[in-house]
């Protein structure tokens, strides 16, 4: 799932240009049984299953050992979790400056809390909602951090947060006619006056209902 996303479009091109590298690992490869089982029922009762600490710790330490052959700094470890620190542009920018980041995708009811303690991992959430697995959050973290790396977006000015940008954006035609109605591009965007356009964009960003 993650390979398909990160090898396509902008992230795929960035990897070909060696601006970043995304590698994926199968947790079942570090299972200590012939079935590749990495989960167990939770202590204390409750529905669902919990990912065991041992295979998670083994997987991360295996990757750390591989990475540290050519690096001095220990890779930063993230565990995707609904209760973690929120993913923001500021945090993504911080990640983009790190040489190596390991993201552990949570599943089921989560990961045995002892894995976080042993690994010194940081829990990160992509929003106030629950998903079925950590793969989508991992892709969001990768994407948000990758676009902060110079060259990934082509022109660094493409970063919305580094320029004045509103939630509404327009392109040709100037007048869009649908079912007898005309929908026009706001006049200020056609004026050529960049100062006025930036003022409009700032207002639009703070109040999407203004015309």
Structure in words:
Helix 3 (53-67) runs parallel beside helix 5. This protein is an alpha/beta fold and 211 residues long. The mean pLDDT is 91. The longest helix is centred in the N-terminal third of the chain and has 15 residues, at 53-67. 32% of the residues lie in helices and 15% in strands.
Summarize the structure in short.
It contains 7 helices and 7 strands, in the order ααββαβαβαβαββα. It is of the alpha/beta class and 211 residues long. The strands form 3 sheets. A 3-stranded parallel beta sheet has the order 4-3-5. It has a two-stranded antiparallel ribbon with strand order 1-2. It has a two-stranded antiparallel ribbon with strand order 6-7.
What are its keywords?
211 residues, alpha/beta, Alpha/beta knot, 2 domains, three-stranded parallel sheet, two-stranded antiparallel sheet, 7 helices, 7 strands, 32% helix, elongated
Give average pLDDT, whole number: 91
β-strand amount: 5-15%
**Rg, Cα atoms, Å:** 22 Å
Separate helix tally: 7
Distance between the termini: 41 Å
How is the secondary structure organized here?
Elements: H1 2-6, H2 9-16, E1 39-40, E2 50-51, H3 53-67, E3 76-86, H4 89-96, E4 101-104, H5 113-119, E5 122-125, H6 135-146, E6 175-178, E7 181-184, H7 194-206
Parallel strand pairs: 3-4, 3-5
Antiparallel strand pairs: 1-2, 6-7
Helix pairs in contact: 3-5, 4-6
């Amino acid at each position: 799932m993650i390979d398909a996303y990160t090898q396509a479009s902008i992230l795929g091109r960035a990897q070909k240009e060696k601006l970043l590298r995304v590698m994926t690992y199968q947790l079942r490869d570090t299972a200590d049984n012939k079935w590749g089982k990495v989960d167990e029922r939770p202590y204390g009762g409750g529905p669902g299953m919990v990912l065991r600490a041992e295979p998670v710790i083994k997987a991360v330490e295996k990757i750390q050992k591989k990475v540290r052959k050519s690096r001095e700094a220990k890779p930063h470890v993230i565990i995707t979790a609904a209760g973690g620190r929120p993913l923001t542009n500021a945090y993504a920018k911080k990640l983009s400056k790190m040489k190596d980041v390991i993201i552990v995708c949570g599943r089921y009811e989560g990961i045995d809390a002892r894995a976080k303690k042993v690994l010194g991992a940081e829990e990160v959430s992509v929003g106030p909602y629950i998903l079925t697995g950590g793969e989508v959050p991992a892709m969001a973290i990768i994407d948000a951090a990758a676009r902060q790396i110079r060259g990934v977006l082509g022109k660094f000015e493409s970063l919305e947060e580094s320029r004045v940008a509103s939630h509404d954006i327009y392109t040709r035609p100037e007048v869009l006619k649908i079912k007898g109605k005309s929908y026009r591009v706001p006049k200020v965007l056609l004026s050529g006056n960049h100062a006025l356009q930036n003022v409009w964009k700032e207002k639009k960003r703070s109040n999407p209902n203004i015309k």
